[in-house]
Amino acid sequence: EVQLVESGGGLVQPGGSLRLSCAASGFTFSNYVMSWVRQAPGKGLEWVSSLIGSGAATYYADSVKGRFTISRDNSRNTVYLLMDSLRAEDTATYYCARPTDYGGTYGLDVWGQGTTVTVSS
Amino acid sequence: DIQLTQSPSFLSASVGDRVTITCRASQGISSYLAWYQQKPGKAPKLLIYAASTLQSGVPSRFSGSGSGTEFTLTISSLQPEDFATYYCQQLNSYPFMYTFGQGTKLEIK
């Protein structure tokens, strides 16, 4: 079964750091672009970051550029999101997602259950 | 950056109705557009990709059309399980950008 399972969310103070993990199973992980998408409480979906299968190229939304770092370990079938300098507006449910195609241009068809990050003092 | 604008933001309809949601891109994105359905507390579900291709397992009452800057999602005959929030998303590979529209909440009239 194709599956993504996120972990690492929690409560963190403004300015703090947190690392999210997403463990993949049931498919050839290294072939796929992997992405993080977030959703603030009561708000819409926001793309956060993506990286290609080899990990050699990474992409970020302007709202997180310079603060978040995406990475992957293909030997562990896991993608990470390191979040630094966290702000209240980063409070959201964070989803890991995989596209239908290797290149990532045909939509995200596999999603994790989400992990909740709350930034508050 | 490319912006996506969905209309309407809220839609009230009845079971059996035909509804259409529009997504407009601020620049041409060819057919690199997907549509999702999201229910409260759940992850989004992919409905349509490449603007008009139905994802496997999605009922045929859902259809998508458009290219360039204007796209539509149509539900031909609303079923009770279709009441949810719908999002469009552009998936450009150069420059890499995965922008979402702001969402359309479809409610029961």
How would you portray this structure in words?
The complex is a heterodimer of chains A (121) and B (109). Chain A is mostly beta strands and 121 residues long. Chain A has no helices and eleven strands. Chain A has strands at residues 3-7, 10-12, 18-25, 34-39, 45-51, 58-60, 68-73, 78-83, 92-99, 108-111, 115-119. In chain A, strands 2, 4, 5, 6, 9, 10 and 11 form a seven-stranded mixed β-sheet that branches. In chain A, strands 1-3-8-7 form a four-stranded antiparallel β-sheet, with no helix packed on it. The model of chain A has no long low-confidence stretch (mean pLDDT 96). Chain B has 109 residues and is mainly β. Helices cover 0% and strands 50% of the residues of chain B. Chain B has strands spanning 4-7, 10-13, 19-25, 33-38, 45-49, 53-54, 62-67, 70-75, 85-90, 92-93, 96-97, 104-108. The radius of gyration of chain B is 13 Å and the shape is globular. The mean pLDDT of chain B is 95. Chain A binds chain B through residues 35, 37, 44-47, 50, 57, 59, 62, 95, 97, 99-100, 103-109, 111-114, and chain B through 1, 32, 34, 36, 38, 43-46, 48-50, 53, 55, 85, 87, 89, 91-93, 95-103.
